[in-house]
C-alpha cells in the first residue's frame, strides 16, 4: 500500500520480473496493471488500468527451390526459445494454400536458449501468389506465427 498527500504528482515504479507472470499468461499475452485508490475525505474510489501487450518471439519461415508448379520446393521453419525456461509439449504447424496441406511437428521439449529447425518438402499444385504460414503453440507461449509470401509460376 502506498499513501499520498493531496495534490502532489507522484510517480511510483514497480519492477515486474517475467518469472512472476510467464506461467500464468493466457491466450492474449497481455499484462493488465490496475491501480485503485480511495479518497480519504470523500470515500470516492479511483481506478486506472494500463494494458501492456507483450512481444512474442519470432517464428521464421523461408522457402527455397524453383517457384514453379510441379517443381519440388522446401519450406523451413526456424525458432529459438528466447526464455531461460524450457518450453514443453510444443506443436509447430505449417501450411500453404495451393502448395502444402497442413502438416505439424511435435517437440516434447525445447530448452531455454535452444533452436529448432524443421524443413518440409512440397510441390506447388497451382500457380499464383500465395503464402506459407507457420504457427507455434504450447501452454506457455501462444500466438507465435510467421509467414512468407511467394509467387508460384505456371
From TrEMBL:
TM stretches of this protein: none
Record-linked InterPro entries: Ig-like_fold, Transglutaminase, Transglutaminase_C_sf
Molecular function per GO: protein-glutamine gamma-glutamyltransferase activity
Source species, domain of life: Eukaryota
BP GO terms, sorted: blood coagulation, fibrin clot formation
SUPFAM superfamilies for this protein: Transglutaminase, two C-terminal domains (SSF49309)
Family membership noted in the UniProt record: Belongs to the transglutaminase superfamily. Transglutaminase family.
Protein name stated in the entry: Transglutaminase C-terminal domain-containing protein
Source taxonomy: Eukaryota, Metazoa, Chordata, Craniata, Vertebrata
Amino acid at each position: 500500500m502506498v499513501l499520498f498527500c493531496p495534490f502532489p504528482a507522484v510517480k511510483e515504479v514497480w519492477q515486474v520480473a517475467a518469472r512472476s507472470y510467464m506461467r500464468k499468461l493466457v491466450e492474449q499475452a497481455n499484462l493488465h496493471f490496475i491501480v485503485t485508490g480511495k479518497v480519504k475525505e470523500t470515500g470516492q474510489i479511483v481506478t486506472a488500468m494500463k494494458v501492456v501487450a507483450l512481444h512474442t518471439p519470432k517464428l521464421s519461415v523461408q522457402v527455397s527451390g524453383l517457384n514453379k508448379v510441379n517443381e519440388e520446393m522446401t519450406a523451413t521453419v526456424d525458432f529459438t526459445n528466447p526464455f531461460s525456461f524450457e518450453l514443453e509439449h510444443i506443436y509447430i504447424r505449417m501450411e500453404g494454400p495451393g502448395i502444402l496441406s497442413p502438416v505439424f511437428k511435435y517437440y516434447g521439449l525445447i530448452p531455454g536458449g535452444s533452436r529448432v529447425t524443421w524443413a518440409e518438402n512440397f510441390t506447388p499444385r497451382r500457380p499464383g501468389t500465395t503464402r506459407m504460414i507457420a504457427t507455434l503453440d504450447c501452454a506457455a507461449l501462444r500466438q507465435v506465427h510467421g509467414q512468407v509470401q511467394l509467387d508460384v509460376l505456371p
